[in-house]
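#struct-pred
JK: can someone run the complex with 1-deoxynojirimycin? inputs below
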Amino acid sequence: MYFYSVLSVVYAIVVNNVHASKNVIYNDGDSLDWWQNAVFYQIYPRSFMDSNGDGIGDIQGIISKLDHLKDAGITATWLSPIFKSPQIDQGYDISDYRNIDPLFGTTEDFKELLVLAKGIGLKIILDFVPNHTSDMHEWFMKSEDKIEGFEDFYVWHDGIPNGFPIPSVPNNWVSEFGGSAWQWSEKRQQYYYHQFAIQQPDLNYSNPKVVEEMKDILRYWLDQGVDGFRVDAVPYLFEDPHFRDEPLAYGHNSYDVNNKNCLDHIYTKDQEKTFDMIYQFREVVDQYSKDHNTETKVLMTEAYSPMEKLMLFYESEDGARKGAHFTFNFNFITDLKNTNITVTNIAKAIHKWLVYIPKGSTSNWVLGNHDNSRVATRLGRENVDGFNMLVALLPGVMVTYNGEEIGMEDGDVTCEEGFDPQAIKNCTTFNEISRDFERTPYQWDGTLNAGFSTANHTWLPVSEKAKYVNLASQNVLGISSHYNIYKELLKFRGRFSRPAYFDSLTVVELSSNVLQVIRKRNEEEYILLFNVGYSQEVFDFYKSKLTYRVVVASVNSTYVSGDEVDNHLLLNPHESIIIESTASSQ
Ligand code: NOJ
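RT: done, structure tokens with the ligand placed:
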């Protein structure tokens, strides 16, 4: 019992399976800014709510469901792209950054959303896609036509002469979506570079005009009143100016243009100038808040990069330049799956983050998004509450993908029904790589199309599972459901948002199956106990107070909120509880 007070003076240490970290938010008495303890709820607009019966979600649909966000206790939401787009990559291929795609509604609809959101204290974050545009963007068309001023808006290259009319690709770079990252333009008689789909040409960030245009787009939406941006695919902003071939990745001895993992992406990812660009974007939003005397406008960056690179999106190595307010922490997505959920692996994923995060920065914990299999599918239906509890208790920002609050599972989609551009080009690998499964419509209730749409046909099929996993059936007062637990958790998090707190976190591997996470603030102590295993566990947990009571318990728990617990506990398989101290120290 005494050793964690000893350990708590050391940052992130592991002794006797007790991991202790101190001052994980490092506010040392400062009050928290609005975003630092917020729950950011990701809305995938195509699948959230369809108001006009065309089978695709839209802004009026979101407006009609604001009550749900309010009911859940969510105070910030980020919307996947709603801008004009040919929808090749479901909106991540933008043809006009300043206008709303008619599929989702109008500028007026968006303004209405902003006003109504403000009315309920909900922040609206937009998805900013700086790396690439659609090939239907006017800049690209002008660039392809070499119109003066636009020649260098994109990454163009002659290719390598080979005696044929079309030269060979400039180098071995492969696209994230498979195949060469180069596409020949008959018009311009040159190749252009695209990190994602062929229809998503990469912008040329070495061109100051491009940089200025993109900064202006940020300012434009700030003027409309948005509260910040999720910044898409940031590692890819710059490429090697010498266009050198990338070496084979460790463990690969041959090149396969359809396997992005065969190369070590030292020339197309995480280039030095990339981080500088994020610091510049930060200067734009900070300057905006200063000039207009607004609340903080937040930047959250999306990158799947090694930890030491990832942290450079937060700030420069010397801490002098700030970047994202937080860069998404995907460790629970990339490091954990159904087959490897052990207490050790969860503790490792937590500590991997806390060890690297720069001093003074705010942590964040992401459980899911539109690019990854849903929590219930990826980490197990029976673990949904335990993981929601974990991210609710951990210090910093919590990120929820729409539907995770009710434990939605991946839907069933065939290759013929799918839309994901990287998956539909080869049906033999569709099931392994498609992201359509986690994008099926939100399951509101047990009626037609799960209440998502009145259409005969929805853009992706509504999951059959909607009959038994839907919000209406879980949103019943007094029942134990994923949704009611989620709501309790958000209320519980509210307790941490009081200003001027000093906080500590301890992660304990009580056994190979039982995880204990302790958060302490002054005299208060909150503890998560989570049995990730398949058998009953009886154990004593680490505690510093005399008595505890249950704050929230998983759907499969025998405990209910308010139950007193003593030191000796029994947890069923996959059962989880959060308890709080009720009396002073022993
Ligand atoms: C990341 C987005 O989350 C993903 O959905 C998209 O396909 C790529 N960036 C390209 O924009």
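RT: quick notes.
The longest helix spans residues 272-292.
The longest strand covers residues 514-521.
JK: thanks, will look after standup
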